[in-house]
Write a structure and sequence with these properties.
- The chain is α+β, with helices and mostly antiparallel strands.
- It has 53 helices and 28 strands.
- It is extended, with a radius of gyration of 55 Å.
- It starts with 11 loop residues before the first strand and ends with a strand.
Length: 1901
């Protein structure tokens, strides 16, 4: 089909327009070759267009379905208006800034922030093919990175465009992408340094222009180096053509370089004050443009960023400040004023502060600079002359020096950056990023524009050849015959500039001429090239300008200034001055070894001169006269040509990637598109050239399958060959397109000429329209027939029902008539009866009322008489009582007067006595008598000491007896006639038995009395409990009433608080798990440096932070305890040395053998261990009570809180002695005495408690303390109790020690005389102490009362003057006398005590020796008894039975006492609660107080636990191992365990085995062993998972076992919270010695880390499947039809053969999910954890699919939405099949589900509300993005109207402001994982270790 056949009526065309470049129109007639054709514009205007020939026909428009394509080369008609319109639609309407044009990425500056550069976007594009995602600069960067990594080629990204188009930002984002995807793990962080170079270069190389606020005024090529692992190892930067002229002059509304304004912004900082900087308007070099500020830019903050970047790049603070000092010097140098002097000379004023400041900052001599700024040297053959300069010449030299200084600083910084970025390792490949100026043309173009356009000519030449090369390679690869395309070659233009005798050569030659000028150079150009080079021309009206025809446009250059800018002249004298600077850096900048080798610099890109210089008469610039020796021999043009040549060689050696930046408008309006400005740049940057090259060949390309899928409607069934898609396509095209030149068949694609796809689309739409008409015809006929049949059926049905209705009406009339007659009869009878009954009822009621009235009147009369009598009686009684009270009152007054007189007389007598000294002396005499009495008691004590000496003599006798016993022992060994002696002993035992029978009767009677008392106390407690319960019920009812009143508000507050707490808990948990992940990463780095973690112990035992517990666990634990308890709780959960110190030695296992030894004393077989243990327990409890009471007494004495006051009666030493005596007790008498002592202690305790409760009540009622005599007496009593307790400690300790050491405690043996005597002495001493204590208390109370009432006496008798009472100082004298007596007595007591102690120590040594001898004799006798097998007689058996009975009764007695104590404690608690309830009942605090009391009680009960007790039970379910077998156990059970072996075992068997080993360590109480086992287990599991992190089965295995071990540790911890599901046997297996709660936290952290490892492994496995399964899988065949993809096809960057690519589909994803479910089930992972795993996986699937959808325009259409929804339904069904649909996994899929629904929904203004409501899980950015990307794949679909999108945005603004508005979902987000407690029903004793584990060294216990 010819092109002219497409120009028919209705065809859409483009018409040129002067305002908008191209205007859309429609043909009103067919084109048949006429000279003009009628058209109609879109606004309705009609016109006529002239057509000279067929080649002048207007451009045709593409179908609507091709508008807005990602790649411009995919358009059917490739022409300038279509390119411009497509960019306009994407940019202005859809806010898309990136578009492909073949190999070029067109980037349009949006002039506002767009959120498309986050790290999530980088990760989304990483690893993707270029055509697979929407156009983006990250896609180009990924293409370059992929080519480098796959093909080992160097790559380049060329970013070009005019100023303000966004080149710098584009290059920055490209470098950021490389830094992210190529970031290494090394500590150097090269990628950060590469990015840090950007703010530095922007500060010193960017400035504000009229077109751009941050315009780069230099070219930059950055090479980013990579190693073989494709990680960034270094970088190198090259710069081109810095615009130095901007340093000294700026155009209006422009700025100098940013760094100058940044320095001025921080002038007030202390470190910058020495620079004496001012406002930018005060400096000439920063005030030329009169625009010192940029809106929205903080220069001070930017300087901070610049300094931070310099620091990161290795520029120290000293060098930084030196650089800023030099730059400040440039600013001051610009303010130096040079004025005219006499003649042709100039001068600088002597008071010029700017010059002084400049020289000071640069470290140079001011006098020299003042001299050589106004003079120059002229060197001749024989002499050197000094010539003065004019003011203009000096001003020019001043500006040249300032530019030169800045250029050197710029070069130094670039070199410093390169040194820092230089790699120490070998560079493997690199990717270069070229950020260079685009083609420029202004009204006045100078040397800078010439160099820029020259560089762009060279770049365009590479671009054209590269595009042509790619086209040629594509055709050759597909085997297509084609004629070579003739593309534009700009080599002649390049030759004109750089060839021999070209423009640059002639310019350099003229610069060497002594009298060279711009005009002479221009004339040489005319003579050399005018008329000879087609790219050179001369303007008509000027002899100082020339024209060059560049590839983009013709540019006219003004020759003025070319020579001076090319020379870049700086006076040698100025350079020498700077070289001599006192600052090292300044001198270093100008220390040049070879100027010719210096890197290229200089140049300018502005159209204005530095400062206007007047012309001379000859028309020459005076700048030519600033002659002097040039500092550099190489010209700027020569240097630039060499650097450009080097750049071209680099680019030719790399694969280029092009980014063309477009400036949409000149007003910086966001998303505003001006066609005129855009088309100029498109022509200049080569985009249209790419289109032209593509259009000259076969621009439209389809694969055979895509072509058949879309255009199969054009084929007949006989033409379709599904086994051969190419044959099918050939059959279709041969019949449709007759001209074979319009298409070509390649190996994998079909290539079409321009316009053919549009023609095919037209045929397809016509075919579909015809098919639609055919379908409509048949459907409409079927609908009409169905409607007719329905009407006929309805008519017949209506007739049938109508006749039935009439018949029923008649029958109803007959029935109603009969019924009415009957109703009338019945109603009339009813009315008559009703009237009769009313009359009868009225008569009866009247009679009743009259009779009642008479009765009431009679009753009132009788009541009136009765009340009168009562009133009379009360009045008479009142009168008599009033008279009696009056008489009594008189009697009382008389008595009071008489008593008052008597009291006054007595008061006078007392005052006289109080004043007398004799009375006070009498009191003191009483004290002296008491002291004398104490002296007598001391003498008595000395007598007692003498008695002790007598006892010593008795001990000597005992020694003699011991010698006799030894002799008897030797005799017993030789003789066998010991039976007679034993019979004697039996007789003695019988007597003892009789005596004990009597004691038993006493115990029985005592038990009955105690039982009776217990019953009475119990009944009393029950009564009190009942009353308390009643009060509590009343209080609770009141509380419930109050709660009902505030129920609504409280419920709302509670719900809000719960939500906040849950959110905080979830965030805390997520934060904790992120910390666990970070901890795992840090631990991995640690393990790279050391082989295995070693368990460290500190020199102080276990007081250290365990190495196997994470710091997180310690932090979380430390936060829950007080600082005082931290040291106590800092150890782990096993028995540590610190705990042992507090608890004492751990009790031995309950299984006690016959030969058990307690404290070195032998225990006989018949001893009742249970009784001893109960007594021990009872004594421990009394100890605790005693301690608490003692603390309360201390607090009470110190004036503390009433809640902390009590007392004690027995000291620690007394209790220790009693315990020692009890442990060694076999004598029943000792046991009974201990019981008596316990009862005494309990009685004392209860008294003290009651007394303290009474005082607490008094204090609470009074609120303060009153110093009364009773209070003083109580204080003294407390102090006396404390003193007496101390004495009692010593006495009891001595007594018990003596009894223990001297008394034989063998069973059935009486106490020795010494033991009895000591017991009697003990009782006597106790009585004496009690009596002495009472006397002392009375004495001190008397003194305290006297001292307290002294002030009262003074107040009554001496007018309140206290000093008169002791006027003669008699009290002080008495006090001193008493004090001396006390000191004397104290010394005597101390001396006596010392002597007694020495003697006591000697006696103890002798007693210990005797005890040893006695024990040896007893052992000999016992052995002798065993050797003769002497059986007990019947009497002995009876005696043993009685002994057992006594023991049993004692045990019951103790149990009863324990019950009484508990009831007493309960009573006290209830009393306290009642008191608090009574006080705070009104405030509604009763429940809170009860909870506090209960909490305090629980805390006290926990604190009172003294030690971990061993219970007497059977030990089963334990595994014993040796310490040396621990490593083998860990290796076989953890490291070498294979998942296949574990799958055949009991689920969680490794966890059970480890716990059974832990139980054995707990049983033997070996904390070091358990610590080692658990630590090594944790480290080995972590190491195993790290080693096999890619093995799904192994990671799952240890996740399951870690969780099982965690649950088992909780289940058998002994905590009630975890024992609810345990049976009795499992509770018996709980740990008894160790608290492993801290280890549980460590195992929990380990489980979190393994869970995260498993999730990461699963996500990495399914990540490649997500897009193919959810988005691309086509389960419904033929539903979607693709469109041409252009040059950026999806396979454009793939390096593998398509046949080798593994096909991924929905089935692949489903298989992976089934595999995960199977593995998790196989290893018995907790069901709750399985639910969390699949919830996380489904979130990852949703995030990956949605993110890919948001970045792919080809996926956003109705057909794809249906396909995606269908694919998602399979995933939802999988959840239901596996019973996981209620775990929240389906909820995580809602964003992608709503996105698919959005694609299918109607998109009209009426649907705005429903769409916003439907897309509740999508953010505003996501909804708008999908709507902008929505593209119909068929012309029958409608595009999304722009007003509809605007309405959606308005509606979505009503959403909460704090809602997330990000574009992409966070693929790295993870839900906080929890491990709900899951107890096991498996009993430990049933677990067996199979042989396959090779753990034969384990022994079951």
């Amino acid at each position: 089909m010819s092109a002219t056949e497409l120009y028919t009526k209705g065809a859409r065309v483009w018409i040129p327009d002067s305002e908008i470049v191209w205007r859309a129109a429609e043909l009103l007639e067919n084109y048949t070759g006429q000279k003009s054709i009628k058209i109609q514009y879109e606004d309705g205007e009609e016109s006529e267009v002239a057509v000279s020939d067929k080649s002048k026909l207007p451009h045709l428009r593409n179908p609507d379905i091709l508008i807005g394509e990602n790649d411009l080369t995919s358009l059917s008609y490739l022409n300038e208006p279509e390119v411009l319109y497509n960019l306009h639609v994407r940019f202005a309407e859809r806010n898309i800034i990136y578009t492909y044009c073949g190999i070029v990425l067109v980037a349009i500056n949006p002039y506002e922030e767009v959120n498309i550069y986050s790290n999530d976007i980088i990760q989304a594009y990483s690893g993707q093919d270029m055509g697979a995602m929407d156009p983006h600069i990250f896609a180009v960067a990924e293409e370059a990175f992929k080519h480098m990594s796959r093909f080992d080629r160097n790559e380049s990204i060329i970013v070009s465009g005019e100023s303000g188009a966004g080149k710098t930002v584009s290059a920055k984002y490209a470098m950021r992408y490389f830094a992210t995807v190529g970031g290494s793990q090394a500590e150097t962080m090269v990628e950060q340094k590469v990015l840090a170079s950007n703010p530095i270069m922007e500060a010193i190389g960017n400035a504000k222009t009229t077109r751009n606020d941050n315009s780069s005024r230099f070219g930059k090529y950055l090479e980013i180096s990579f190693n073989k692992q494709h990680e960034i190892v270094g970088a190198h930067m090259r710069t081109y053509l810095l615009e130095k002229s901007r340093v000294v002059f700026q155009a209006a509304e422009e700025r100098n370089y940013h760094v100058f304004y940044q320095l001025c912004a921080v002038a007030d900082r202390p470190e910058f004050k020495k620079f004496q900087l001012k406002n930018p308007d005060d400096f000439f070099y920063t005030s030329c443009g009169q625009a010192p500020e940029i809106q929205g830019v903080d220069d001070a903050e930017n300087l901070t960023h610049t300094m931070d970047a310099l620091t990161l790049l290795g520029v120290g603070e000293r060098h930084q400040m030196m650089i800023f000092q030099i730059l400040s010097g440039i600013l001051h140098f610009g303010n130096v004023k040079i004025s005219e002097a006499e003649g042709e000379s100039c001068e600088i004023p002597a008071k010029d502060k700017s010059l002084t400041m400049c020289c000071s900052l640069l470290g140079i001599e001011e006098s020299q600079m003042r001299m050589w700024l106004c003079h120059k040297k002229i060197t001749t053959v024989n002499e050197v002359l000094t010539k003065p300069l004019t003011a203009n010449q000096a001003s020019f030299a001043q500006d040249a020096l300032a530019k030169h200084i800045y250029a050197e600083v710029f070069t130094w910084i670039v070199n410093k950056i390169n040194i820092t970025l230089q790699s120490n390792t070998k560079q493997y490949k690199f990717i270069g990023v070229l950020d260079i100026y685009g083609f420029e043309t202004f009204e006045i173009n100078s040397f800078e524009q010439f160099c820029i356009n020259y560089a762009n000519e060279k770049l365009q030449q590479i671009f054209n050849s590269h595009v042509f090369k790619l086209e040629q390679e594509e055709y050759v690869r597909e085997g297509i015959e084609w004629s070579f395309i003739d593309f534009y070659d700009n080599q002649p233009c390049i030759d004109l500039i750089e060839s021999k005798l070209g423009i640059l050569d002639l310019l350099d030659e003229e610069c060497k001429m002594p009298r060279g000028s711009d005009a002479n150079w221009c004339q040489k150009l005319y003579s050399k090239h005018l008329g000879k080079a087609k790219h050179f021309d001369k303007p008509r009206m000027s002899n100082k300008a020339f024209i060059i025809a560049h590839f983009a446009d013709k540019v006219q250059y003004l020759a003025d200034g070319f020579l001076e800018k090319n020379r870049d002249t700086v006076l040698e004298e100025h350079i020498n001055i700077l070289k001599a600077s006192e600052f090292e850096l300044v001198a270093e900048l100008f220390d040049i070894k070879d100027p010719n080798l210096k890197k290229p610099r200089a140049g300018s890109a502005t159209t204005h001169p530095t400062r206007l210089v007047p012309k001379s008469a000859g028309g020459k610039s005076n700048r030519n006269t600033v002659g002097s020796q040039q500092q550099q021999k190489a010209t700027v043009g020569d240097q630039f040509r060499d650097s450009l040549k080097m750049l071209m060689e680099t680019l030719n050696a790399t694969t280029p990637h092009y980014i063309r930046c477009i400036k949409p408008n000149d007003f910086k309006e966001p998303f505003t598109f001006e066609p005129n400005r855009a088309v100029e740049q498109l022509r200049a940057c080569g985009v249209l050239e790419t289109i032209r090259i593509s259009a000259a060949g076969y621009p439209s390309r389809w694969t055979y399958s895509e072509f058949f899928q879309r255009y199969r409607v054009l084929a007949r069934s006989k033409d379709i060959n599904r086994s051969n898609p190419r044959k099918t396509c050939e059959n279709i095209l041969i019949k449709i397109i007759q001209d074979p030149d319009k298409y070509r068949f390649g190996k994998t694609k079909i290539f079409f000429r321009a316009g053919q796809v549009a023609y095919l689309e037209k045929l397809r739409s016509e075919k579909l329209r015809a098919c639609g008409v055919m379908i409509q015809k048949h459907v409409k006929g079927w609908l009409a027939r169905r409607r007719y049949k329905k009407i006929m059926r309805s008519i017949k049905l209506i007739q049938k029902h109508g006749r039935g209705v009439l018949a029923r009406r008649h029958a109803k009339f007959l029935r109603e008539t009969k019924a009415a007659t009957k109703i009338q009869k019945t109603f009339k009878g009813f009315q008559a009866r009703k009237v009769f009954m009313i009359k009868k009822k009225a008569v009866v009621k009247i009679q009743a009322c009259i009779r009642g009235l008479f009765g009431r009147r009679m009753y009132q009369k009788q009541m009136h008489e009765h009340r009168a009598i009562v009133i009379q009686r009360h009045v008479r009684g009142w009168l008599q009582r009033r008279r009696y009270r009056k008489i009594i009152h008189g009697f009382i007054l008389i008595q009071s007067h008489y008593r008052r007189r008597k009291a006054k007389a007595q008061l006078k007598i007392l005052k006289i006595e109080a004043k007398s000294v004799e009375h006070i002396k009498g009191v003191n005499k009483g004290l002296e008598n008491k002291i004398i009495e104490l002296q007598q008691k001391l003498d008595n004590r000395n007598k007692e000491v003498q008695q002790v000496k007598v006892k010593e003599v008795e001990i000597a006798n005992m020694k003699t007896e011991m010698e006799k016993l030894r002799q008897n022992s030797s005799m017993a060994e030789k003789s066998t006639n010991r039976i007679t002696e034993l019979l004697k002993q039996i007789e003695e035992l019988k007597e003892e038995l009789a005596r004990e029978k009597g004691e038993k009767q006493d115990l029985v009677s005592e038990k009955e009395l105690m039982h009776k008392k217990h019953t009475e106390v119990g009944s009393m407690l029950m009564d009190e409990n009942v009353s308390i319960k009643e009060q509590l019920n009343k209080a609770n009812e009141k509380l419930r009433d109050q709660e009902k009143q505030s129920a609504d508000t409280s419920k709302e507050q509670l719900d809000t608080a719960n939500k906040i707490m849950l959110a905080e808990f979830e965030s805390e948990r997520a934060h904790h798990q992120r910390l666990v992940k970070d901890y795992a990463r840090l631990q991995q780095r640690l393990e790279n440096l050391q082989g295995e973690m070693q368990v460290l112990t500190s020199p102080q035992g276990h007081k250290r932070t365990p190495s196997d517990i994470s710091a997180i666990s310690l932090e979380s634990y430390a936060s829950s305890i007080s600082p005082e308890d931290f040291e106590k709780e800092s150890d782990q959960g096993y028995e540590t040395t610190e705990k042992k110190k507090k608890k004492g030695p751990a009790p031995a296992p309950p299984t006690i053998s016959v030969d058990t030894v307690a404290n070195g004393t032998h225990v006989d077989k018949d001893m009742d261990i249970g009784l001893v243990l109960k007594l021990q327990s009872r004594i421990k409890e009394l100890e605790k009570d005693k301690d608490s009471l003692q603390k309360k007494v201390d607090n009470f004495e110190d004036g503390g809180s009433p809640m902390h006051r009590s007392s004690a009666v027995i000291s620690d030493s007394a209790f220790d002695a009693l315990k020692k005596q009890l442990v060694n007790a076999e004598d029943v008498e000792i046991v009974i005495k201990l019981q008596k002592r316990i009862r005494e202690l309990e009685t004392a305790k209860s008294k003290l408690v009651d007394e303290l409760d009474e005082r607490e009540e008094e204090d609470e009622n009074m609120g303060f303390k009153i110093m009364t005599p009773e209070y003083a007496y109580n204080n003294l009593k407390m102090q006396e109790l404390e003193n007496e307790n101390d004495k009692l400690k010593r006495e009891v300790a001595k007594l018990v020690a003596s009894i223990t050491e001297t008394t034989n405690f063998d069973q059935n043996v009486q106490l020795t005389p010494a033991g009895k005597e000591f017991l009697e002495q003990f009782e006597a001493m106790t009585d004496e102490l009690e009596r002495r204590r009472e006397e002392c208390l009375q004495l001190r109370a008397m003194m305290a009362e006297r001292s307290i009432t002294t002030h009262e006496i003074a107040k009554q008798s001496y007018g309140g003057i206290d000093t008169i009472v002791n006027e003669d100082n008699e009290l002080a004298m008495a006090y001193r006398t008493q004090k001396e007596l006390n000191r004397l007595l104290e010394n005597q007591l101390q001396k006596t005590e010392k002597d007694g102690k020495k003697k006591e120590e000697e006696l103890k040594k002798e007693i210990r020796q005797l005890k040893k001898d006695n024990d040896e004799q007893q052992k000999v006798i016992t052995q002798r008894k065993k050797s003769h097998n002497i059986s007990l007689s019947p009497e002995a058996k009876i005696e043993a039975t009685m002994q057992h009975e006594i023991t049993r009764l004692t045990s019951e007695n103790l149990d009863l006492r324990e019950t009484i104590d508990k009831n007493s404690d309960q009573m006290r608690r209830l009393k306290k609660m009642l008191k608090v309830y009574a006080k705070r009942l009104k405030d509604g605090e009763a429940a809170e107080i009860a909870a506090e009391l209960e909490q305090d009680e629980n805390k006290a009960s926990v604190d009172n636990v003294a030690s971990i007790k061993h219970r007497e039970r059977m030990y089963m379910g334990m595994l014993e191992y040796k310490k040396e077998d621990e490593n083998v156990l860990i290796k076989n059970l953890i490291m070498d365990l294979k998942p296949k072996v574990a799958a055949g075992l009991l689920p969680g068997l490794p966890a059970y085995v480890l716990f059974m080993c832990v139980r054995h360590t707990d049983y033997i109480n070996d904390d070091e062993k358990v610590r080692s086992l658990l630590t090594n287990s944790i480290n080995s599991v972590r190491k195993c998972v790290k080693k096999h992190h890619g093995d799904l089965d192994r990671v799952t295995l240890w996740l399951a076992n870690t969780c099982r071990l965690l649950h088992t540790l909780k289940q058998y911890s002994g905590e009630k919270a975890f024992q609810s599901d345990n049976n009795t046997r499992q509770n018996e297996h709980c740990l008894r010695n160790f608290d492993l709660s801290e280890y549980r936290q460590v195992f929990s952290d380990l489980a979190v880390w393994i869970y995260q490892t498993l999730i990461k492994l699963m996500e990495e496995t399914i990540q490649p499947m997500i897009v193919a399964a959810v988005l691309e899988h086509e389960a419904i065949a033929g539903l979607t039809a693709s469109k041409p993809s252009g040059m950026r096809g999806r396979s454009s960057s793939t390096a593998t053969d398509p046949d080798d690519v593994k096909e991924l589909s929905l089935d692949s994803l489903m298989k992976a999910m089934n595999k995960y479910s199977q593995v998790l089930t196989q290893h018995a992972v907790d069901p709750e954890l399985v639910k969390q795993i699949f919830r996380q996986l489904y979130y990852f699937i949703c995030a990956g699919a949605l993110n890919n959808l948001l970045l792919r325009k080809d996926m956003c259409n109705w057909s794809k939405g249906m396909q995606i929804r269908y694919n998602l339904s399979h995933l939802e069904q999988w959840l239901r099949d596996n019973k996981l649909h209620e775990v929240g996994a389906q909820v995580t899929m809602e964003p992608i589900i709503q996105a698919s629904q959005l694609l299918q929904a109607r998109k009209t203004v009426a649907d705005v509300d429903s769409i916003c409501e439907m897309c509740s899980k999508l953010t505003t950015a996501q909804i708008v993005k999908i709507l902008n990307l929505y593209t119909p794949v068929d012309e029958f679909e409608e595009r999304v109207p722009i007003p509809f999108i605007r309405e959606i945005q308005k509606k979505l603004k009503a959403r909460p402001q704090d809602s997330d508005n990000t574009l992409l979902m966070d693929t790295k987000f993870s839900y906080p994982v929890t491990f709900p407690f899951n107890p096991s029903s498996i009993a430990m004793e049933t677990v067996e270790v199979p042989q396959t584990l090779h753990l034969g060294f384990l022994t079951r216990v």
